[in-house]
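It would be a great kindness if you could assist me with a short task in structural biology. Thank you for your consideration; the sequence and its tokens are set out here.
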Amino acid sequence: MIFTKKIETDKYIILFNGITGVEILTGINKNPDPFVLDSPSMIDVGVMGHCYNNCEICYQGNLNIPNMKLEDFKSIIDQCKGHLNQVALGGKGDPNKHENFKEILEYCRENNVAPNYTTSGIYLTDEEVEVSKICGAVAVSAYDKDFTYSALDKFINSGMKTNIHFVLTSESFPLAIKILKGEDIWDRKVDLDKLNAVVFLLFKPQGNGKDKKYLCLRKDQIKEFSELILSPKSKFKIGCDSCLINKISQVRQLSEQEKTCVDTCEASRMSCYISPDMKFLPCSFGNKDIYGTQITKNDTIQKIWDHGVPFKMFRNILHKNPMSCPYEL
């Protein structure tokens, strides 16, 4: 296998393929696989500060601030490119609608960093699809709207690695089970032979969904889902975010195969989040005004990663219980 990037310290080595997304992390010099990296290898960058869609369970809530400046985004890449493999573009809104979308993607690739992003697909243009071809992968949120299927069709027909992001709630649970059983819940509106994956995202009651705790999965639902995911019948790949893996690991032991390719919470350990106004925090689900530290010339990304109180708090909790969510304490 060919790798496009190699990150090596005296304790571990990371090999990464910026085209396929394959990443291998292993301890060296008789050291175990690291619990915490010296620097983040993946950053969730909130390039978008506002959105007009107002989705009912958007975890960003009523955030309404300017989008991230291009020079700020470039400063993130400049500070981190030596150890950074991927950026996930996000925030509140569709990253493909950022005023500097093309420049953001190109600057990533110029610095050997793979960009990825998720979009609702609303008003997705052919030009945006063409620009997106340098991404490692794209994902379309599962809204079951005409624009959802139009965006999926455009991405898939362009030859891009295309995923569906499916928020798993107590209400969407029956559809998720049908997906795992190999049923076409989209009634041939999606080319399932060419779809790369469906990635299940755990619903968290915050932002616009803070008063919708009834949408949280019950333990019996998590148990049923966790068993079916061991041998899904779908034509495409199945993935889960780390929050969902946390819940699965609480109801059954992860298989040996799962242990080699998934992890529980990686926030503050391998990944982190930077908000549109350049506040640095362990995870995008934290309140940036409580857990965020402003990035400045003196308080660099590396300095905050090493010494920031929210990061130390996060790691201490995960050391004690890797299957927990520090924000839920």
About this structure: The domain at 35-328 is CATH 3.20.20.70 (TIM Barrel). The radius of gyration is 19 Å.
